[in-house]
Amino acid sequence: DAGVIQSPRHEVTEMGQEVTLRCKPISGHNSLFWYRQTMMRGLELLIYFNNNVPIDDSGMPEDRFSAKMPNASFSTLKIQPSEPRDSAVYFCASSLRGGRAFFGQGTRLTVV
Amino acid sequence: QQQVKQSPQSLIVQKGGISIINCAYENTAFDYFPWYQQFPGKGPALLIAIRPDVSEKKEGRFTISFNKSAKQFSLHIMDSQPGDSATYFCAALKGGSEKLVFGKGTKLTVNP
Fold first, then answer.
1. Cα–Cα distance between B18 and A9 in angstroms, integer?
2. Which of A20, B35, B75, B98 has its CA 20 to 30 A from that of A99?
3. Which residues on neighbouring strands pair with residue B64, listed in sequence order?
4. Rounded CA gap, A78 and B21, in Å?
5. Residue B46, min C-alpha distance to chain A (Å)
6. Residue by residue, what is the 3-state secondary structure of A54-92?
7. Helix %, strand %, coil % for chain A, to 5?
8. Digit-coded pLDDT (tens) for B30-80
9. DSSP letters spanning B19-44
10. Which residue among B34, B42, B43 sits closest to A99, beta carbon to beta carbon?
11. Is residue B54 within 8 Å of B63, Cβ to Cβ?
């Protein structure tokens, strides 16, 4: 298995632009997570899905952030409009059972 | 509110030495405690995990020690090697939940 696949690996965008991050989880995994990692705040869980249904989005910072999982093999995290403080590494992870989460390589987002 | 407190923030150890990273938690509903290892430019990867019904778990040079009464657990890396240089995260999970709570991370440097 190729593991969790995220794209793009790097994204540089201007403030105010829309950003879409993509994730393909490991086949057969039924939970998908979006995390944000910064030096200041560490790893923060933004949202997670179980069987394509959003279960907990309490970590989504504000309405500018949205996430979808239209099917078991694809998810997106969208930021609209983006701001410089959104600059971070965004990770997608998937799991079949609690705790054993497999992470993707991450998307490094820079908003200038 | 930080549910899992990790220390130290950074650690420098000589090759062959023992690296010790500590974590403490408050929520007694947590029943699964994994450690993740993250190399630069990569996503975190599960290293070793423990449940509170045992006090110690060993896998190769990596050992988790768990103290249920003190609500603390620690990672010991024996015979530390330069290849162990990475950031280590402790985490905790409540039974029935998929939502991992991470510590802030410890950056380990093993000098040759």
1. 35
2. A20
3. B57, B75
4. 35
5. 7
6. EEECCCCCCCCEEEEEEECCEEEEEECCCCHHHCEEEEE
7. 5, 55, 40
8. 999 999 999 999 999 999 999 989 999 999 999 999 999 999 999 999 999
9. EEEEEEE--TTEEEEEEEEE-TTS--
10. B34
11. no
Give the neighbor-by-neighbor strand order of the sheet with A5-7. Answer: A5-7, A19-24, A74-79, A65-71
Please say whether the beta carbons of B43 and A103 come within 8 A. yes
Give the tokens for residue A109: 């987002």
Chain B residues lying within 8 Å of A60, measured CB to CB: none
β-strand partners of A16: none
The residue of chain A nearest to residue B1, with distances taken between CA atoms, is: A41
Residue with tokens 């890396």: B77
Burial of B100 (0-12, 13-18, 19+ CB in 10 A): buried
Q: For A11-68, write each residue's pLDDT tens digit.
A: 999 999 999 999 999 999 999 999 999 988 889 999 999 999 999 999 998 899 999 9
Give yes or no for a contact between A10 and A108, defined as CB atoms under 8 angstroms apart.
Answer: yes
* Pairs of CB atoms within 8 A across A/B: 53
Cβ within 8 Å, pair B43-A31: no
Q: What are phi and psi of A16, to 5 degrees?
A: 95, -15
| Mean local confidence (pLDDT), A72-100 | 93
